[in-house]
Amino acid sequence: MTDWLDAVRWDAQGLVPVIAQEASSGDVLMMAWMNREALAQTAALGRAVYYSRSRARLWYKGEESGHVQQVHEIRLDCDADVLLLKVTQLGHQPGIACHTGRHSCFYLRWQPESGAQPATTGPAEGRWLSVEPVLKDPESIYR
Amino acid sequence: MTDWLDAVRWDAQGLVPVIAQEASSGDVLMMAWMNREALAQTAALGRAVYYSRSRARLWYKGEESGHVQQVHEIRLDCDADVLLLKVTQLGHQPGIACHTGRHSCFYLRWQPESGAQPATTGPAEGRWLSVEPVLKDPESIYR
Predict the structure, then answer these.
(1) Is it the case that residue B119 has pLDDT exceeding 60?
(2) How far apart are the C-alpha atoms of A52 and A66, rounded to whole Å?
(3) Could you tell me the CA-to-CA distances from A94 to A24, A102, A134, A141, B107 in Å, in that order?
(4) What is the rounded radius of gyration, in angstroms, for the C-alpha atoms of chain A?
(5) What is the mean pLDDT of residues B57-79?
(6) Rounded mean pLDDT of chain A?
(7) pLDDT of A119 over the 70 cut
(8) Interval A98-125 mean pLDDT
(9) CA geometry: angle A66, A4, B122, nearest 5 deg
(10) In whole angstroms, what is the distance from residue A109 CA to residue A86 CA?
């Protein structure tokens, strides 16, 4: 009875994007990828297991950092090609999902160029500002 | 000064995944894709403009449905290959992001098979349950 795995529309590489959202705060922590086996393992273990495209193998989130994600809910979208996990980010308080030692991977916020008008007359100008603190030195996370 | 667009690591198709999150509730509404022009337009207009892979053109979210997403923040992740928008979902109250007439596209929740033990002994069994109501008949959204 693994029909539920067949319901997912895996892409040509056999992967789908997966959003991890902190259950308690609603913060979006990261996006990663899963293949069929990663999703099966996630459901079986109740912890996030992704597929690392760079390492080309299953990635038990927290296997090196200790920053395991406990999974409360697994959601699938209307097109069956994106997953959403509601998680508790374990291993540090507050939780650290990002390899940079930050709470969330989405720590760069687009900032319009100061003085720029809402650009109805040309391309928007701006830059990416880091807006979240490093909670733990990455060197102490990955020994 | 569009260096900020160059900072994004566009994939081989010139796209990146984009998560839309409701600013007020924290709900993850949908995931879509952007190319460089979609992101530039989103920043310039303050409303979500995606790239539709199926239609192979820019998709001004709400262009047919009226369900426009007003954009409050644009975030970029640590690897510069995923975007996160914080939005207000306009056009209906509560907001409808999904083409099925639901608030969020992530309305399918994985439900373990009843009676199944946490599967330490085999693959997890379960099914996808629809857990969010249809707020508006899609036929009345897309005339």
Answers:
(1) no
(2) 17
(3) 11, 9, 11, 14, 28
(4) 18
(5) 97
(6) 93
(7) no
(8) 83
(9) 60
(10) 23
Residues of A in contact with B1 (CB under 8 A): 113, 125-126
> For residue A24, what is the domain's CATH number?
3.10.20.810
Q: Domain for residue A88, yes or no?
A: yes
Q: What percent of chain A has pLDDT over 70?
A: 93
pLDDT at residue A120 tops 90: no
Beta bridge partners of B73: B86
Substitution target in A6, A28, A99, A117 with the highest count of B β-carbons within 10 Å is A28
Distance separating alpha carbons of residues B137 and B99, to the nearest angstrom: 10
How close, in Å, is residue A48 to chain B by CA atoms? 14
**Domain contains B75:** yes
In a domain, B127, yes or no: no
- Look at chain A and report how many structural domains it folds into: 1
Q: In this complex, how many residue pairs, one in chain A and one in chain B, have their CB atoms less than 8 Å apart?
A: 135
Contact B84 A28 (CB under 8 A): yes
Q: Decide the pairing of beta strands A57-60 and B108-112.
A: unpaired
State the pTM of this model.
0.94
Nearest residue in chain B measured CA to CA from A7:
B128
Q: Which domain holds residue A92?
A: 3-106
Say how far apart CA A113 and CA B94 lie, in whole Å.
33
Residue B101 in domain: yes
Residue A116 has pLDDT above 80, yes or no: no
Q: Which value does ipTM take for this structure?
A: 0.94
Place of tokens 């319009």: A112
**Residue A117: which pLDDT band, with cuts at 50, 70 and 90?**
low
